[in-house]
Specification:
The protein has about 290 residues and is an all-alpha fold. It is built from eleven helices and two strands; from the N terminus they run ααααβαβαααααα. It has helices at about 1-25, 35-45, 50-55, 60-80, 105-115, 130-175, 180, 185-205, 225-240, 245-270, 275-285; strands spanning about 90, 125.
Length: about 290
């Protein structure tokens, strides 16, 4: 029976590590529990009045919640591993009151100290298998800390790329170039560069799905508000006379279709056209979509 309880604790740790792996390191990053937490917080925030302020907190708050969830489940999992063998399989420092505490409390304390790599030493494993297993928890704790830092360092560059594209589209919308102005070599280069940036954002939504749950702030920096204008630019390019401009327009239109497909497949689930998906994207982020 003791070993079954310990195996249950080990299973809880493995489930957490699997979720961490799929959230941070899997190529398509299909997170499990972490994705559910973020989606639930996003939907809850959208129910509030004046939701822009509330929704703006969802991304950072969701990341903190997910990391806390990972830490708590790892600590509890290892505590369950120790619990059936406490206190007979452990040694206690002289004069320590720990041996008089409930076994579960001692197990949680030992797990917390070990995962934090504090190594206080007032409770130490005595059996050989526990002496081998206990350091693994410290390694898991170090990996969790490293993964959290890496996650933060990865997500914010992705958000920057998205906002740069949004601001660029907003500036183009304000200047409102005509079809004749686009129908030149400079116009072809413009559309081609926009297509490249859209592809980067599309990859970011694939690899950093949690970036979707970050609010972009003002309309001029919100991709949800201005992505419809990029659709209009692509159509102007496709209608141009110069072949290089038409080619660049086709590239931008294709990149936008791919972006809409990713948004619909992973977040919106409308099953509609690119125009309908972008409208749903704007609505989900509390924006009025820019007209082509």
């Amino acid at each position: 029976m003791k070993w079954l309880v310990s195996l249950a604790g080990a299973g809880l740790v493995m489930i957490t590590l699997r979720d961490l792996f799929h959230t941070l390191w899997h190529p398509t990053r299909h997170g499990g529990l972490s994705r559910l937490v973020m989606t639930a917080l996003w939907r809850l925030a959208r129910r509030f009045r004046g939701r822009r302020r509330v929704v703006g907190l969802v991304g950072p708050l969701a990341m903190v919640t997910v990391v806390s969830m990972w830490a708590v489940t790892v600590i509890l999992g290892w505590a369950i591993v120790y619990w059936p063998h406490m206190p007979e399989a452990f040694t206690f420092s002289p004069g320590s009151e720990a041996a008089r505490e409930p076994a579960l409390l001692d197990s949680v304390y030992l797990s917390l100290v070990t995962v934090a790599t504090l190594g206080l030493g007032d409770i130490a494993p005595a059996e050989s298998w526990l002496r081998l297993v206990s350091p693994l928890e410290a390694l898991v704790g170090f990996a969790l800390l490293t993964a959290t830092v890496s996650w933060v360092l990865e997500i914010y560059p992705a958000l920057t790329r998205r906002r740069v594209l949004a601001i660029r589209l907003a500036l183009l919308r304000d200047s409102d170039p005509t079809t004749q102005q686009i129908d030149c070599t400079a116009g072809a280069l413009l559309l081609d560069s926009l297509a490249t940036e859209v592809v980067r954002v599309r990859i970011d939504f694939t690899q950093y799905a949690e970036a979707y749950y970050f609010h972009d702030g003002e309309d001029h920096s919100s991709l949800a508000a201005v992505v419809g204008y990029a659709d209009g630019l692509a159509r102007r390019g496709q209608a141009a006379r110069r072949p290089e401009v038409r080619l660049a327009g086709d590239l931008l239109a294709g990149a936008l279709r791919d972006l809409a497909a990713i948004l619909d497949q992973r977040f919106l689930h409308t099953g509609g056209t690119s125009t309908q998906v972008f409208a749903a994207y704007a609505d989900d982020h509390g924006r009025s979509r820019a007209q082509p």
